[in-house]
User: What shape does this take?
Amino acid sequence: MQGTTDLLRVGTDQVPCEIRLSRRRRTLSIEVHPEPRVIIRAPSGWPRALIETRLAERAPWIGRHVQRFRGLAAALPPPPTYLTGDLLSYVGEFHRLEVAIAGRPTVTRLPGVLRIGVPPGAGPDRVRRALDAWYRARAGELFAAILDERVGWFLDRGHVRPTISVRNMRTRWGTLAGRVRREASRMTLNLALIRAPRECSEYVVVHELCHLEHRGHGRDFYRLMDHQLPDWPERKRQLGNLLLGA
Assistant: This one.
């Protein structure tokens, strides 16, 4: 796969736009990401003029999403400084950060408060690392619990319970690798989900589980999603409306 990056004019804005070409693609897709940033995925044989024509056709749609993301970003709390008083999200609720002195890094969740203990003289980076480790541990617990709740139907179909890994991902909420019946697959989930409401994490887990049965996003895949999680479109919209800070 190869790619080029340009600036795309959206109204009065100039938005970074990356074109990614792949021999495996048969169609063109356009993605608008929160930064904002636009990614175009196209077959490697498509001429640049054809890609630009498709972009021009979708310009109003791109513009609406860019403005929506800018509006959401303006409503968010400022980026964390990892000092007392920051607002941090955990499972869909904002908590006030309280930094305290402790012999070793600790994180305690209180009503509306995340209290992080660090050794004397520790700076914001030490606070950030303690918070990140706590988020990762809680994410592993939450995602495993959701998987236990949702995997039963797939086990009855002969699939093996996927293993879970948690990592930071820039463009995806989750992925599934190794989708072979009766062999363990690996479900990778975005650490940022631990800051979203639980129903958003449930949506991503069920989405990836459905890929055990159907690799693509065709009609059969969405029928299974409807069966497993009837309100998945609303959960997807809720997740799409989230811009999650660090």
Notes: Residues 2-75 form one domain. The chain has a mean pLDDT of 88. The helical segments are 48-57, 59-75, 124-150, 152-156, 198-210, 219-228, 232-240.
